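User: quick one
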Amino acid sequence: MVMNTESRVEKDPAGAAILFAQDGAPVTIGSQLKGRGGRGAAKQKPPSGPTPRWPDGHPLLSAPPGQTGYWDSGFGGLTGKNGANLPTNLEISEVPFQPWAKALYEERRRTQDKTDPHVRCVAPGGPRQFHTPFGLLIYELPEAKRILVLSGGGPRTWRVIYMDGRPHPPADDLDPSYLGHSVGRWEGDTLVIDSVGFNEKFWMARGGLPHTDALHLIEHISRPDFNTLKYEATIDDPKAYTRQWTGGWTIPWAPNQDFPEYFCQDNNRDFGHLVGQ
Amino acid sequence: MRFAAFLLTLVPLMAQEGHPLVGSWRGDWGPNAKDRTDVTFILNYDGKNIVGMINPGPDVAKLQNASLDASNWGVHLEADMKDRSGKLIHFVADGKVEDVTSARRRIVGTWSQGGMKGDFKITRDD
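Assistant: Done. Structure below.
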């Protein structure tokens, strides 16, 4: 059995890829995600259309008017270059951990995520929101000067990104939270989000990469074509890492489908399956 | 009572998932199983050092020297703390974090204060 500890994709004895979703349940790739075809599927995807745009020319990160669809999240990791991960990602051995953070990460891997807060329906803060299974929507509300990032998985989290140029509140006024305080701006075709004010009650990425309340997250999001969202996160957390580092992945578009309804709290039995070692 | 215990099994523990020592820890120390003294630690991590206090309140003591050896989860704690007569006496505690990924992790080890030696066990609060 082969296991990618970041993406949690395993192969069964017959070689078929199995995704182990956040909720711990094995999901054969493609069964959750209609029309995706699955990683390594023989069927070639049709060529993607161009990036949809707002009238002023900047990218539209949701479905164009009259269409349905959502970002088919659930894959990818901040480290490693396999699958949907970016080719520029560090390998896990290259991550500039502080000694305690490295030891804690390794202990989480050794104990097979049995204490992962997310499987107990804790909100997915930071990059975790972008690889939580069961979909992602990014809605820009120009009149409100906000962008909403809606997660279909986990506890169906939603996050506000302020696009009105406001700064972060002073550090003493920030109430540490799962999603932090996010401000964004467009740099060409890339949405740049700067977030601070995270609490320490969640794992910022699947696999257990640690963070602290000092986490300063810089995310770069772009839609290079109609069917692809590129997500890249720079981790700036001097309490947990010796320097900034960056990783990311791509997320495919699931066209012609409504956002699935899923609630982690509904009959959640998953943490009982995480027995660890 | 039974219902309350049942509810406790349903409530997920909200762990502190950052530096393993950060948080409040409660337990006791003493020379034997019958002679125990309650103790509370408030520990924090400033990015380089473990800082904190012991027994917040009128008898609070500032942690003077603390460290974590992540290679074996060894913990070293030192401070001047009042004994039962109110006299300030230096203590040294050396232990290990047990079940480090758990919300209810523990630090267990040896404790010496003045001429007294014993053991201690503290558990992280949520």
